[in-house]
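Look over both lines before class:
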Amino acid sequence: TAGLHGLDVLMVEKEPLFGGTTAFSAGVIWIPANAHQRAAGVSDSREDALAYLTHHVGNRLDRAKAAAFLDNASAMLERFEREGLVAYTLASNWADYHPDEPGASQGGRSLVPDEYDGRALGAWFGKLRPPIATMTAFGGMMVGRNDLPHVFRMTQSARSALYVARMLARHARDRLRHSRGTRLVNGNALVARLAVNAFQRGIPLWLGAPIVELVHEDGRVAGA
């Protein structure tokens, strides 16, 4: 966002790989009353989302932060997608974690990152934190939400069998040149897409950057 507004930005990571816990995750975001819902004709409202948060979180809810999130999250997603920074697909059948509570949605507030070709990272691909093993098969082939129905039906459907065969063929080609599959899904896809766009905008990334504390003679930490 700072870069979009013309500021100079530097990304600093203390680990030797980038991606953090997002690279391990499914990459799903929860944004009520989003544009994907409206396009799909899924009904939702700020008021329902606030009722859900209020009921579930109770007296621990920071209403000012909840209001700021509900007032800005959808616009943030639209801006990021318009700029090409992210790409998401509506999970219309993913209900909220507590679907029986007041204001809960039966589907549409959750969005899943679109798959991404890790080869776009070039030499940076080897610096992207790999996903957890349970999200992969056959030595690094990522399996995402949209793949699972085909995996489960591959012995019953010719279409699903062809889908899985293409995944396997792509992975076999990848392993000739890479340590794992370059077809990225889940949080890996989200991080990779963000990184490529940052690099294209001239935003540098420092890996393995040490944290330095400046300490006064009296022991007070002056900065980091």
